[in-house]
Design goal:
Strand content: 15-25%
Number of helices: 6
Order of helices and strands: HHEEHEHEEEEHEEH
Radius of gyration: 18 Å
Structural class: alpha/beta
Number of strands: 9
Strand order of the largest sheet: 1-2-6-7-5-3-4
Largest sheet: 7 strands, mixed
Length: 259
């Protein structure tokens, strides 16, 4: 009995330690922008813009989910099993943060991230150059980068996993101009693509300022002035989510036909 109490106390201390390490002092977009700053990628490497990876530059202006089937398959039991592998270079504490993010989908959807055995298609979570993911299922091994320096936070893990499940950034939604005004004059030259409007699948869910996929008002600012402004009310707070919103969850469940 004493041994059991000790084990439970140790687990509680580990959870406190993980959450303390994830202490919220920046938005998810600020974390990603900071982690991805000044990263130089090899010319023959994957094409990455912001935190989204593509096989080629020609793909970047189209939502892959609208041009081909990028959804993960639903099994006969109604669950969507997404195989994953986590690289060995993470510490036990870092791995616990990643696994907490993976498991957070299990209680709110039919998505089940499962350790890969021999599946052909799987997500390979690695500490590469920054925080980024492909959008949707890409077939075979697909990289999802959670760099050890800057990306290991619960909101960032959920954000990148939502990309891997097929979701784009909220400010890139097809209907965003009814809810967000892009202040182009404040955007860093060369980073305008981060605000490209895309023909997204919105699943009948209203624009969500509280989405973990919504960037902050100062994202990619060249002058510390806002790059986005809510409309019609410019005082609405946005881009400060610490985890998936209810709309994120509903949209995920609708896309994957979770009952």
């Amino acid at each position: 009995m004493a041994g059991l109490r000790f084990t439970l106390a140790l687990l509680a201390l580990m959870l406190v330690s993980i959450r303390a390490a994830e202490k919220k002092d920046k938005s998810v977009s600020e974390r990603i922008e900071e982690a991805n700053a000044n990263i130089v990628r090899a010319p023959d490497g994957r094409f990455v813009e912001d935190d989204v990876a593509y096989d080629s530059e020609g793909e970047r202006n189209a939502d892959p989910c609208t041009s081909h089937n990028c959804k993960w398959e639903q099994a006969s039991d109604g669950m969507v099993y997404v195989p994953y592998a986590i690289a060995d270079h993470y510490t036990s504490r870092e791995r616990a943060i990643i696994e907490r993010g993976l498991q957070s989908f299990h209680s709110v959807s039919c998505i089940r991230f499962v350790p890969r055995t021999s599946e052909r298609d799987y997500i390979h979570i690695q500490s590469l150059d920054g925080c980024y993911s492909y959008v949707g299922r890409r077939f075979n091994e697909q990289a999802l980068s959670l760099m050890q320096q800057g990306c290991l936070y619960h909101d960032v893990v959920q954000h990148e996993l939502l990309h891997a499940l097929g979701f784009k950034h909220e400010q890139c939604r097809s209907d965003r101009d009814q809810h967000i005004r892009i202040l182009w004059e404040n955007v860093i030259p060369g980073w305008e693509y981060a605000f490209d409007k895309i023909n997204t699948l919105n699943q009948g869910i209203p624009y969500d300022y509280n989405s973990v996929m919504q960037y902050s008002k100062f994202a990619f600012s060249k002058n510390n002035q806002p790059t986005m402004e809510p409309i019609p009310d410019p005082n609405v707070e946005f881009g400060v989510a610490t985890e998936m919103s209810q709309n994120d969850i509903t949209r995920l469940n609708r896309l994957y036909n979770c009952s």
